[in-house]
Amino acid sequence: MNQLMRKDVKYLYGVGPKRADLLAKELDIHSFYDLLMYFPFRYVDRSSIYHIADLQGDMPAIQLKGRFVTFNVQGEGAKRRLVALFTDGTGTIEVVWFNRVKTIAETYHTGTEYILFGKPTLFKNSYSIIHPEVDVYKPDAPPTGLLGIYNLTEKLRNRNFTSRTMQKLVTTLLESVAVRRLPETLPPSIVQRHHLMPLGEALFNIHTPTDVPSLQQAQRRLKYEELFFLQLDILKNIKGQSRKLPGLRFAHVGQLFNDFYLHHLEFPLTGAQKRVIREIRNDTGSGHQMNRLLQGDVGSGKTIVAFLSMLIALDNGYQACIMAPTEILATQHYESLSTMAQHIGVKVALLTGSTRKKAREAIHEQLRSGELQILIGTHALIEEEVKFRNLGLAVIDEQHRFGVAQRAKLWKKNVSPPHVLVMTATPIPRTLAMTVYGDLDVSVIDELPPGRKPVTTRLRYENQRQEMYHFIGTELRKGRQAYIVYPLIEESEKLDLKALEEGYEIVRETFPSYRVCYVHGRMKPAEKDHQMQLFASGQANILVATTVIEVGVNVPNASVMVIENAERFGLSQLHQLRGRVGRGADQSYCILMSKHELSKDTRHRLEVMTQTNDGFVVAEEDMKLRGPGDMEGTQQSGIAFNLRISNLATDGLIVQAARDDAQQILDADPDLTTPQGRRLDAELRTRFNRTQHWGLIS
Ligand code: ADP
Ligand code: MG
Q1: Domains of the chain with bracketed CATH
Q2: Can you tell me the distance from the alpha carbon of 112 to that of 68, in angstroms, rounded to the nearest whole number?
Q3: pLDDT score recorded for residue 79
Q4: Whose CA is closest to atom 16 on ligand 1?
Q5: Nearest protein Cα to ligand 1, atom 10
Q6: Which end of the chain is more exposed for a tag (fewer CB within 10 A), N or C?
Q7: How far is ligand 1, taken at its centre, from the CA of residue 605, in Å?
């Protein structure tokens, strides 16, 4: 493979310097290897020939056999086009070209028998084909069958470089490198265990498949290979780096932890919470630095896990901190954690952007002296002046708001980096997590505290608005509270704020005997806090708000969440919002208000919400709809998503198998120094051309 990588594609017969230049600029193809690894993005079946008279409904791309009857140039300027009539004896069809009108008119002739290949489109009761592929019909040519179609750019097509050109070049390449004899890259044991097609065979079939089953085998093999080397790379080079970093050793569980656990816990922990605490305990006791991602749906009880973990740090003579993305959240953490801490005499402080200078200075002082044991705050916490005496554990809540760079800053708060626990309520599918957060170990709280009733979710349309208000009224009379949330995005901020204000007025008129409060992100922080407090304390019955309330806010008495213009929200956001209710023991409701006309994807999104309460199911669906690269939290991961053939959203099983195999190999040969290991390592270098060091970010 390495040799193919060094061979410039311009030396391939049929390429030359000009085309090589185009391939490099347009498709990033520089070497024989790059071309070999440029796979078709779809396939067409050219094994049969249709009759024009039999065309019906929405047709896929098909083949027709016949002759051109006339060629006419029509239109002027940009509308100039070549229109030909084509007949096969059963009917006539229009064929249209908008580009290269002159060349085409000179190339094709009336009278010659051709095979056309293209997608017939129906317009005013008759079919036409735009830009078909055209070949002279050769009666004794073998049927071509399955053909790969390559993704090309506009520029390539304008230079007469079509998918057909690509097919020809690739066929030349496959012959010239004797593709079927290319050496295997995967260990024989893996090839056998998963019954994988040999590499050369797979590369041949991915470009020029013999038949559908061979194509499918080739795809499976190449997906496996891609994911295997990706996982091997992550485990060895990314995770392996942080593995080797020595970490603080929390040798024992001491008095604070035991005292709190035995005497002050208000509820028994769920099995999942206990398991996660055990995992954290093992990590922090191992002498290696912990980097752990804790995923748990909203309300699954991550806070208590964080608190108990911090107590382990304290028991070993270290300080701990917890960082939240907003002031409201930091304050809520402060309130609940300081109550717990009081029981066992632990000193806690809150540091945010609005902490006064005096208080701030006192905090700085007590942090340095070690008197202050737990610091809670916003990103104010990672500022330069904040210095700990000995920070042992940093907890980051709601991770997707923080980038990799911010996490790195936390590390530097201590001579040897503290253990890091990242908590997120935006669960991402396991297969994605272990790829995106390749450097993090993943813990999952997959069990809600007992007694929670799943939130009932309903999709309602504008004509059902009065019923919706009526329903809110019923809940208010039971003494419960309701959220009404409006979307607000920057691009349409003015309009959105107007809708919010109008909504607020209507709600006030509809519920004259109740108190309605009102929050949006453009308010002054003090006013925002005041309004939130009104709702949190129960003085206000209804909160009309934008998504500022999305994360973390805890008002157990609220039982209704109405989401206006629900079609404008993404799945993970809807799920987050829904998580604001259902926090008490009573039945709660989420009502998605939407307009009637919805696209297929949007309708599906909203229906997913009505069908499941499980954050992981929601996340899986979200990933299928949006693709893993668009998922929240994946962009800042530092791992490129330029996968050639596999799809993290749909190839989860392969990801898992590849991960297990890679782990097994590294367990036996951590530095890849055996003969087989060295071959794998060489392949990693070929594939990832890795020069960066990942050890210190994350
Ligand atoms: P999240 O994971 O969303 O941060 P919290 O930590 O805020 O969830 O917990 C949600 C609520 O559930 C809190 O009121 C908390 O006290 C309560 N809780 C947490 N764990 C348990 C448990 N094991 N049993 C009962 N209630 C619990
Ligand atoms: Mg939380």
Answers
A1: 1-45+147-177 (1.10.150), 48-143 (2.40.50.140), 456-612 (3.40.50.300)
A2: 8
A3: 80
A4: 301
A5: 299
A6: N
A7: 28
CB 468 within 8 A of CB 460: yes
pLDDT digits (tens, 9 = 90+) for 534-548: 998 899 999 999 876
Point out the ligand nearest to the CA of residue 300.
1
Count how many Cα atoms sit within 13 Å of the Cα of residue 185 in the half-sphere of its side chain: 23
Cα end-to-end distance, the chain, whole Å: 32
Mean pLDDT value of segment 250-255: 93
- Distance CA(414)–CA(368), nearest Å, equals 12
Residue 414's region, left for phi above 0, alpha for psi from -120 to 50, else beta, is beta
**What is the pLDDT at residue 493?**
83
For ligand 1, mutation pick of 304, 334, 399 (most atoms within 8 Å of CB) = 304
What's the gap in Å between 628 CA and the centre of ligand 1?
29
Which residues have any ligand 1 atom within 6 Å of their CB? Answer: 267, 269-270, 273, 296, 298-304, 425, 449, 554, 583
pTM higher than 0.85 for the full model?
no
Buried b (16+ CB within 10 A) or exposed e, 220-231: bbbbbbbbbbbb
Give the torsion through C-alpha atoms of 398, 403, 405, 408, to 10 deg: 20
Which atom of ligand 1 approaches the CA of 273 most closely? Answer: 23
Rounded CA separation 260/246 (Å): 29
Ligand 1 midpoint to CA 554 (Å): 10
| For ligand 1, atom 4: residue with the closest CA | 302
Give the number of the ligand closest to the Cα of residue 305.
1
pLDDT at 620: 80
CB atoms within 10 A of CB 619: 24
Probe target for ligand 1 pocket from 264, 267, 294, 555, with the most ligand atoms within 8 Å of CB: 267
Q: Which helix (H) or strand (E) holds 86?
A: strand 81-87
Q: What is the DSSP letter of 111?
A: S
Determine the distance separating the centroid of ligand 1 and the alpha carbon of 301, expressed in angstroms.
3
Q: What is the pLDDT of residues 16-32, one digit of tens each?
A: 999 999 999 999 899 99
Could you read off the pLDDT of 456-504 as tens digits, one per residue? Answer: 999 999 999 999 999 999 999 999 999 999 988 777 888 888 889 999 9
Rounded Cα–Cα distance for residues 255 and 269 (Å): 19
Residue 317: both structure tokens together: 């003579």
Measure the CA–CA gap between 267 and 498, rounded to whole angstroms. 44
Q: How far is the CA of 617 from the centre of ligand 2 (A)?
A: 20
486 C-alpha to ligand 1 centroid (Å): 27
What DSSP designation does 690 have?
Answer: -
Cα of 550 vs centre of ligand 2, distance in Å, is 11
